[in-house]
Please model this.
Amino acid sequence: MRILTIARNTYRENIRDKILYNLILFGLLMTLSSVALGQLTLGHEDKVIVDLGLASMSVFGTLIAVFIGISLVYKELEKRTVYALLSKPVHRREFILGKYLGLLFTLLINVMIMTAGLWLTLLFHRGVGFDSYLRLLPAVYLIYLSLALTTALALVFSTFSTPALSALFTLFLWIIGHFNTDLLEFGKLTNSTPIRWVTTALYYALPNISNFTSLDSRSVIPHAGYYQPIDPRAVGWISVYALLYAGVLLAIAITIFSRRDFK
Amino acid sequence: MSVIEIEDLTKDFRVGFWRKRPVRALDQLSLSVERGEVFGFVGPNGAGKTTTLKLLMHLLHPTSGSARILGEPVDSVSVRSRIGYLPENPYFYDHLTAEEFLSYLGSLFGIRQPALRRKVSALLERVGLAESHNLQLRKFSKGMVQRIGVAQAIINDPEVVFLDEPMSGLDPLGRREVRDVIVSLKARGVTVFFSSHILPDVEVLCDRVAILNKGTLREVGALHEILKVRIEGHEIILVGPVLEMSDSLRPMCDELRLMGDRLHLRVQTSSQVEKILSYAVAHGAELLSVNPIRASLEDYFFSEVTHQSRLLVSD
Amino acid sequence: MIGRRSLPGHPFGWFFWAAVLAAVFLIKPAQDRIDTRLAPLSAGRDLLYFSSPVVVKKLALGYDPLLADIYWMRAIQYYGRRQEAARRPVRYGNLAALLDITTTLDPDLIDAYRSGASFLSEPDPIGAGQPHEALKLLDKGIALHPLEWRLAFDKGFVYFWFLRDYNKAGRVWLAASRQTGTPPWMEGLAAMALSKSGAVESAKALWQRQYQESTRADVRENARNHLLSIQVDEDLWALEFFIEKYTEKRRVYPRRLQDLVQEGLVRYIPQDPLGAPYQYDPATGAVGLSPASKVRYLTLPYDYRKTYREKLEQLYRPR
Model:
């Protein structure tokens, strides 16, 4: 399938990008340093390790998604490599989808590496039960979903904007996406109906990243007091959300890209 | 059925900060190219050559008009498996080696291994890059890039090949190689449509030529038809006692130049030719050559272009 | 067919766009389902991963006021979501810390000190029931804003109402009344607290002040409820008192409350402050608030009944 061919080539290109390794390295360092940080809390080392490990996976994964994502299309347009490609029997939508899948695959490898790092760190610490390792996987899965969504966002901007602006907007939307609920509450607190409509509309329209951070150490480590079991239906609905939202973003990216003149 | 049919193809670009002013890059171009032809597309910079090629490749969307390749509209993706394209000043994926690059593009045509591998090595051989097959493209020289560009344009054994300035930036050796490739393509019955502003190359290779200026088609036809009206006389080169002869010969011809031990004479009519020849032979000079002065494409080109510019200026 | 115009765009036509539109309209229901499923989780949501205000301030990277606003909004939500609060192991366990972080990030957010103290002091289930935490918060604010007399007012209030330490309340108010900018009535309030501790009058005056003075609607509402409740208490104590007097004379309970008027004991029978008549049971002689009453009754934390009755005894002169 042509999409997979392009995806494979994208993956190959990403793998040879130095920025990928720097970010993975930083991510792993963060996870390792959590061991030291954990000593500062009393008796909550594993919680800190898990939370910090997941947070660094999320942050550095997002940085990778953004920095590679924004240049996915832009680089091809800038360097004109897209001409040779599009003169082959390839639909423009296949190009976009191929690029997207290629980066998704790169991110998958990245997430797997960082999960392995987290497992090793936990192993080194020897404080958690075996089931916690398994319970990490849904949390990692949710983070991966958020990366897929962020990548789609970066891809949309990449079809029409310069890397600087794309990075800005994507990161901005990602950060705002953590405060969606606060925005909604803010609207409820004000007594102005038009403001409430605006905030409610924004709540649904902006990417709701806080959905994907709902599983953290409380679901992974079953200590008494703050344990929260994982709700598989919630995870299911979050997957649906991610699929729908990313789908809409990809549709937008495909449309913009198809309409473009390549001067 | 013509292999390429272009009908009233027009392209406007919006320039200016607010994208208000349209600039017409191509104005109602109509032409057709037959199977097996080598068709040249010439014009000064900014004439619209690259725009036309990009419109044919559906890299640009036309403002109006249409074009068909092999009977299919240009936005059809399936027809692209039967054509090849070399963009102007091409740039390819830096991080890939020559072999990887051609394999990648080849796989987009659905060519599978092991046929793909064989095809790629044959292709590299054909464009003279067999030794660099493992070299990353970022390390290629300009000439090598052009050659791999030609390779990727023909990897699918296309019926029609579109080349945008294929000789640009090449040294004479490189240009010769590309010329040879075009000739070999023609021998196989492939239709070649290429744009260039290196006119001597076009003259040598093309069956028919279209001349474009400022987005409008000026002239199209077989080369010899366009140029045939312009046999402007003959040039005679003599050696021998040239100094003595020069004064007597001067009234017999239009122009006389002494270059070392040779005399270059320009005459208009054949009777002038006869007179000079008999005189020269009678006075012990030796005839080196008699050549018709045919306007080259270049001259024609310049005259057309400057004529039009003068027209515009006088408006 | 020569010359089919190649249109820019229209990659897939109407079907594609219908699908996109459908997806857009499906996002809202999906999000709602997620919210429903995640809502119970947020009851225990650890808002205080970093419970040290100093750490939070360091992490704010200079965006302190913005982060303060966010924490303040979360504190209000934390306080305001009654059902969620009811499900927490400790109803308002994190409130003090949230307010501490908010005021560390933005020390000038006076509202946070004031309303925060109110939320903290009110007993369970209305508030956290932690008046000492409220005092700590107010002291923090006073240290940074010594001339902000409203903080001193709130501090005295906590002492007076929730801790019943009338002396300390009076001293706080007195000190504040000596500063420039403090309104003159603070002195009177101090005097009342220091002298006539326990009188319902000072309680009423206090709630009256807060009602007039606060800028927050919910705090005013609370004050109003307290005032109305005190009025109800007074009415009921008076009615009980006069019912007793009637019974002493007539040896039976009055059939209706109107009988008290006919007996000449009172001039009229009051209704509750929001217009509903009080309920009277002639069999037991008990009076109470009608179930149809709109008054949100808050119990007085201590018994003013005795002192009120003594006052009534003094005022009452049988005809």
